[in-house]
Amino acid sequence: NTTSMAIFPSHLEDNRRAAKRLESVVGTQVSVEKETEVLDINSSPTIEMKNVSFSYPDEERETLNGINLSFPVGTKSAIVGPSGSGKSTILSLLLNFNKVDAGEILLNHQDINDIDKESIWKHSNVVLQENHFFFGTVKDNLAIASENATNEELQDVLKKVELEHLQLNSQVLEKGANLSGGEKQRLAIARAMLKNSFIWMLDEPTSSMDSLTEAKIYEELFQLAANDTLVLISHRLNGLEKMDQIIVMEDGKVVEVGNYEDLMQKQGYFYELKQIEQSVFQG
Ligand code: ATP
Predict the structure, then answer these.
(1) Cα Rg for the chain, rounded, in angstroms?
(2) Coiled coil where (predicted)?
(3) 197-218 pLDDT, tens per residue?
(4) In 137-210, where does DSSP find H-type helix?
(5) Model-level pTM?
(6) Rounded to whole angstroms, how far apart are CA atoms 233 and 256?
(7) How do residues 139-150 score in pLDDT, each as one tens digit?
(8) Which residues contact residue 1 at a Cβ distance below 8 angstroms, ignoring those fewer than 6 apart?
(9) What does residue 27 show for φ and ψ, rounded to 5 degrees?
């Protein structure tokens, strides 16, 4: 698991910066790995971001700048903000898909760079904007989340996401080509529900659903996730009243954090976005 880059200084932070520079010269990704520990948790963790900055390779400007956030044990957090403000990038860093340029991300107070990535994914129920589906049955596509689930459990979870019209042996085409956008999202949520680990990372998981279906599915999901640490990127600003915290992003920075009531009372940026959303919906 260890590939050291002897030509660069031994400090990993420097290595990573050097690797990024090298990447921009040679045009391929240079990996800097170090010895990691397997994440071994049997309850939901606390996750923290300390002074995190990040930019994508070849991007001059910083995508995220000085992010300080805390996702305490069992809390539910929503990240909102305009398109391109850096919401998905936060999730990709929390899941260690990308590495921070500066600052650190701590999972139960341990730097996530010291934790085996795959073990983080193993403990996470992840629903992204695009989810992976392969040619096979509905059951095949669900079972990858929980090999030992019974047909009854699989049918139960399909019901929770309002997909009871699908049979377990219904055919799914590659990339879910024969499913609608909303059905794909519901199948991805079903998979996350089946996995039922201690961390939930959800990136606009209901953007293609009508509000009634969305509300029903969230009710089921939040019931399952009651004791888990959950981070949800939300494209809508309504329905966030129950969240422990709402994180408002703008241009790579966190501009407000608080619960719904706090942010509405404050009449700041969240309040302003809410007014705009309302006026758009009212036409
Ligand atoms: P949306 O609501 O549209 O999903 P977001 O708030 O999730 O947006 P991000 O996807 O995190 O925003 O993107 C933040 C910025 O980083 C944007 O300017 C985007 O163009 C840029 N960006 C995102 N992914 C990449 C990438 N792989 N390479 C380069 N730039 C990227």
Answers:
(1) 20
(2) 144-171
(3) 999 999 999 999 998 999 999 9
(4) 138-143, 151-160, 181-195
(5) 0.87
(6) 15
(7) 999 999 988 999
(8) 33, 35, 36, 116
(9) 75, 10
